[in-house]
Amino acid sequence: MTIKVKWPLKIDRTILIWYMRDLNNAKDRKTFRINVEYDHVYKLVWSPDSKAILGFKATDNSIEVYRLERKDGSFTSYGRSITFPRAHENDDVISLDIACNGRFIMSASNKTELIIWDIRGNVLEQLNTFTMSNYCAKITPCGRFVGVSGYAPDVKFWEVKFGKTGNYEKTVKAFDLVGHNAGVWDFAFDQDASHCVTVCKDGYWRLFDINIDYARGESPRCLLTGEYESKAVSPLIALSNSAHVIAIACGSNIHFFSGLDGKLDMTIENVFVDHTMSIAFDSLGLQLYVAGDRQVRVFHNITGYIVGIKVANEKLKDKKTTAATQERLKKQIKEYESFIAQIYF
Predict the structure, then answer these.
(1) Which residue, 149, 46, 57, 62, is CA-closest to 99?
(2) SS (HEC) of the chain
(3) Is residue 35 a contact partner of residue 11, using CB atoms and an 8 Å limit?
(4) Structure confidence by residue, pLDDT tens digits, 203-231
(5) Which residues have a Cβ under 8 Å from the Cβ of 343 and sit 6 or more positions away?
(6) Cis, peptide link before residue 8, omega less than 30° from 0
(7) By C-alpha distance, which of 146, 215, 144, 205 is closest to 180?
(8) Cα separation of 137 and 89, whole Å?
(9) How much is the pLDDT for 31?
(10) For range 62-75, the mean pLDDT
(11) Which long-range contacts (CB under 8 A, 24 or more apart) does 167-176 make?
């Protein structure tokens, strides 16, 4: 018997932290539980030092910080540290993020409001994104820019500027990602924020080079364009750490594309009964984490291994490659081929 899960799911007012070291132990996966009193949290983000979790509370319309205590590699207790002033009144919050340097926090509503906060809950800047409706907002992994997409066909970026002493100065418009013909549902970055991938209502995704100096007039370049199977549910997109793999979750299916030529490599069907709620690669690009149906599922990034073999073989053709590098590349190819063989055979 198959039961279709319908939204809204049961809200149990808890946050669960899973220990990565226990993921392979199906019988004893340890978790740490945080109870959210008289409310529930639907946006979560870790602080850069992993000593706190920030969550946006649905009923109270505010950001709350939970400070975590750790001993011998495990969390022992938690406490509410700071509750920010109410924000985005009567609007749904679609994004919550914190800069990798901890200098600022960003929240965005489903209308056109985007707020830049300091870590104490003071508003540094309140922006009108002029997207007609925000769909997604994120801080680049370098902690320098804030990007937002929405009903408009462009992804807009602002630079959040700080002085040499760490004091906030201003937020200025930096650049746009252009080329889509409709609203952009989602976007994601690689590890060093040199690339950004976007997925649009028009049924196409685009990979951009954003490693630019916009102050000197440089503009982002579109490197690849691909087509995905568009459905009624808005898709989500993820980019691996090296920008070699693009993953798109559309409905209950996940599609893996090569970041070298844009071709579809594989599709995993019926991952969830209902649609996917969140998608992200791990920091090494070896695994893909997918959330939905009150579950988190982890998949090997097989496309990443296949593309990695192609990249290594191309590097071996370079006559300038040193003997030590060639040896390392050959070893990497052998390891990747062995891993793929174990999965398929």
Answers:
(1) 46
(2) CCCCCCCCCCCCCEEEEECHHHCCCCCCCCEEEEECCCCCEEEEEECCCCCEEEEEECCCCEEEEEEEEEECCEEEEEEEEEECCCCCCCCCEEEEEECCCCCCEEEEECCCEEEEECCCCCEEEEEECCCCCEEEEEECCCCCEEEEEECCCCEEEEEEEECCCCCEEEEEEEEEECCCCCCEEEEEECCCCCEEEEEECCCEEEEEECCCCHHHCCCCEEEEEEECCCCCCCCEEEECCCCCEEEEEECCEEEEEECCCCCEEEEECCCCCCCCCEEEECCCCCEEEEEECCEEEEEECHHHHHHHHHHHHHHHCCCCCCHHHHHHHHHHHHHHHHHHHHHHC
(3) no
(4) 999 999 999 999 999 999 999 999 998 77
(5) 300, 302
(6) yes
(7) 205
(8) 18
(9) 87
(10) 92
(11) 168/103, 168/104, 168/118, 168/124, 170/125, 171/116, 171/124, 171/125, 171/127, 171/146, 174/145, 174/214, 175/210, 175/212, 175/214, 175/219, 175/220, 176/220
